[in-house]
Design a protein that fits this description.
- The complex is a heterotrimer of chains A (about 260), B (about 260) and C (about 280).
- Chain A has about 260 residues and is mostly helical.
- Chain A is built from 10 helices and no strands.
- Chain A is elongated.
- By secondary structure, chain B is mainly α.
- Helices cover about 75% and strands about 0% of the residues of chain B.
- The radius of gyration of chain B is 23 Å and the shape is globular.
- Chain C contains 8 helices and 10 strands.
- A 6-stranded mixed beta sheet of chain C has the order 6-7-8-3-9-10, with helices on both faces.
- In chain C, strand 7, helix 6 and strand 8 form a beta-alpha-beta unit.
- Chain C is globular and about 55 Å long.
- Classes of the chains: A mainly alpha (about 260), B mainly alpha (about 260), C alpha/beta (about 280).
- Chains in contact: A-B, A-C, B-C.
- The interface between A and B is large, with 63 and 67 residues.
Chain lengths: ~260, ~260, ~280
Amino acid sequence: MTGAAIRAPRTGRYDWAPRLIGLATLIGSLLLIEFLIRAGIINRYVAPPPSEVIASLYRIVAEEHVLRRFAFTAGECLSAGVLLTVFGVAGGVLMHRFKLLQKACETWVASVAAAPLVIMYPLFLVVFGRNALTIVMMGFISGLPPAILKTIEGISATRKVLVDVGRSFNLTRGQQFWKILLPASLPTIFVGVRLGLIFALINIVGTEYLINYGGLGSLITDLAERYDLGGTYAAICFVILVSVVFFVALEWIERWLRPAD
Amino acid sequence: MAATGRLTQTAPPNQVTLLRVAIIVTLLALWELLARSGLLYSDVVPPLLSIARAIIDLLSHSGYYYNLGVTAGEVAMALLIGGGSGLVVGMVLGANRFLSKAFEPYLYYLGPTPKVIFLPIAIMWFGIETPSKIALGTISCFFPVALNVAAGMRQIDNVLIRVGKSFRASTMQMVTKIYLPAMRHPVVNGVRLGFGFALIGVLLAETRLSNKGIGFLIVQADSTFDMPRMYAMLIVLFVLAIGANALIGRLGGLDSIKRV
Amino acid sequence: MTAAAPGDGNAILVADNIAVRFETAEGPITALDDVSFTVRPGEFLSIIGPSGCGKSTLFNVIGGLLSQHEGVVSVAGEAVSGPHPSIGMVFQEESTFPWRNVIDNVAFPLELIGMQREQRVERARHFIALVGLDGFENRYPGELSGGMRQRVSLARTLAAEPKILLMDEPFAALDEQTRLLLGDKVLHIQQQLQQTTLLITHNITEAVQMSDRILVMTYRPGKVKRIVDIALPRPRTSAIVGSEDFGRYVAQIWNDLREEASRGMREEESHALLGDTTP
């Protein structure tokens, strides 16, 4: 309480001012770009004016089956997400249960997380063929390490007093896990799954773009190869929009699962 | 790192080594068995010997080192530009609540989008040569560095800042003697992440539009269907990437400093 | 109401009519009001008050870390705006730099003014010895106890050789025995250096043990309730705690303080009842 003495006077309950400035800056820079392109200072064949991109946004939604592509990519993400949650949490629990295994392999898992796995896509292409399975597997393996590591971290960091409470009630090993360890480590596990999903999404859209197959990623390749400038930019904006929606939704789910925080 | 304050009976280290060796040997044996069984195309799972031969072959040709140098140079440039600007932007956002509230949400949500989708734009702006690859690496590594530094800046214990002010440290002194050392862990972690992302950005750009660099070599091995060579290149690349990552952590003093 | 008149020719530090008002969501709060006092060279002055009387706010105003206040703080006749080189602050919180060893922590202010390495190490060693930490020069704060870390902070502030030592409950986070022994240490150093010292505390024993004068503050808004002269003989140690005079002073100050503390407690309770957790 005494340490909080230095505090700037609060202006109001809501932070509308900075948000407005942020938004205004965004709109302002778009207008500036529009102007620079229309004035011929920026080459129109390098960057189309924002107004054209916005118009193309509507066009690609109407003509390029964007919704179907979106559903396709979302399906891939969901599959990879389920896989990495199941295997990641199971792997983490297993490694925590068998300490020797954890000691032997934890650094390996951490190392795999540091390797540029996405570059394995040509290999996956050969192994699984040019189909959705390749893409899902790319997403899955890239998201697996953080899910495993965070699960171990979460279970290991369970406060000792909670474990002792369980022991004082004579819980069995299984009860100890389901009633104490798992609920206590759920927030950390969720962080791991979220991290895994981020990596998975990056690799899924990236692979789609690189192998020109499937959903939103390949749409960008298509349009770029047709040299449809407005369309390419619009598709990129659309992917950004989708990932923003994806992460906002994740945050909602996270908040809904952990109402106490 | 994981065993915080818990009773972990310490297994003798040789037991751990034993298990590690056993796991590796088992995996290799399974692989070899699979390769010889003919259940899969032999190309997909080549025998260990041919992979080992391919690694030796790879490392004994100077052409590989040239391409390695190309990729390393591009990643270094990307890290320098993207990481440097990320550091500055992160510090500004971390120091100023208003700017942080105004602009950080955009960085936060743009951070996890796959940067490879910007490759067509990079090609339009910078052509199909080195600058495009560096550009993709740069935007890939900017976001993790900026976001980590901004968060690290806010985590600095306020009393340390007040100590600096009470001794009338200049802005430059505050940055070099208080802010940076106080947030060295998030900064080093950000640079580590940034390095990983820059590497991915550069490699992917190379697979699409280059005739040199490691990414190009991997795609070339793919198109000639030379699987042992592809495995060899992936293995060497991963070892190098993991090594570089560990090195950044070590240089950043993550292990040598006594207290968090 | 014996607040010394500002402009006392002898004074090294003068606080004249200090007031601090915060805007909060529940409306304006007056943290400090009409606070005036002086500190004479070599004097040990303690400011004591119940929690919530704005002691730490006053600390930040005098240290120049809080600029939004009314009234003037002046050092040797010069008005303070921002941290002043003549004032050295010791903070309540753990404030050593974990990435520097003891020597480099203590040498920090000397480094800022560009002193040569050899010279500043020598100076740092002197002050480390003064707080009794010789032998620990190359240790990192993480390897030291809380009391030792607080001594490192004290040595760091003393190394800048401030005219006025300003301390904000420096022993608040320590256990009782460490607190007493550390108090002895501070008292010893203060007497040895003839260091002008301003101590902010809520601990009556601590204040009586060390001070020449004690300024008692009221609960919010923090005002000067009384200034008490402590006419105990010097040099003092913690042994003085047992003496009869000591007990009398403690009782007298507790009498003043009890009223304020219980008023503060009542007000905070009524806030809590209304569901308002921000005091």
